[in-house]
Amino acid sequence: LVNMYAKCGSLDDAFKTFDTMLERDVVLWNALIAAFAQHGRGQEALHLFQQMRLEGIIPDKYTFVGVLSACACQAALAEGKRIHGYIVGSGFELDAFLGTALVNMYAKC
After folding, report:
1. Which residues contact 76 (CB under 8 A, 6 or more apart)?
2. Alpha-carbon dihedral angle through residues 40, 46, 48, 53, given to the nearest 10 degrees
3. pLDDT digit string, tens, across residues 45-59
4. Stretch (H or E) spanning 62
5. At what angle do helices 77-89 and 61-74 cross, to 10 degrees?
6. Each residue of 14-73: pLDDT tens digit?
7. DSSP string covering 32-57
8. Residue 12 contacts by C-beta under 8 Å, 6 or more apart in sequence?
9. Could you give the angle at which helices 96-108 and 61-74 cross, rounded to 10 degrees?
């Protein structure tokens, strides 16, 4: 349901639905973070990422793609570099998907 609202551009409804859910896994967080980033609401996507980490959810490569996209749309180079360092430090392999997100972020910042 969150993903459906997000894909339709109804981010407020997506967030309201998300906010009522008792269990939020990484897939749910990723859907919301990516949706906010794709719709130009990068600051909110970055805030969601911070909240996700505070709740103890471990990000995956799809999380980072959404977060890097949020950094790119906000021209948040310092945050993007911090995320890049976190990716490297966490041992994530830079595949084409994640590598493209990094190149995109650096190019737009």
Report:
1. 42, 46, 70, 109
2. 160
3. 999 999 999 999 999
4. helix 61-74
5. 160
6. 999 999 999 999 999 999 999 999 999 999 999 999 999 999 999 999 999 999 999 999
7. HHHHHHHTT-HHHHHHHHHHHHHTTP
8. none
9. 10
Q: Could you tell me which residues come within 8 angstroms of residue 82 by beta carbon, excluding any fewer than 6 positions away?
A: none
Residue 84: C-alpha distances to residues 18, 62, 99 (Å): 27, 13, 10
Q: How far is CA 48 from CA 57, 82, 107, in A?
A: 11, 16, 23
Structure-token match 């998300």, residue found: 18
| 34: nearest Cα among 49, 16, 18 | 49
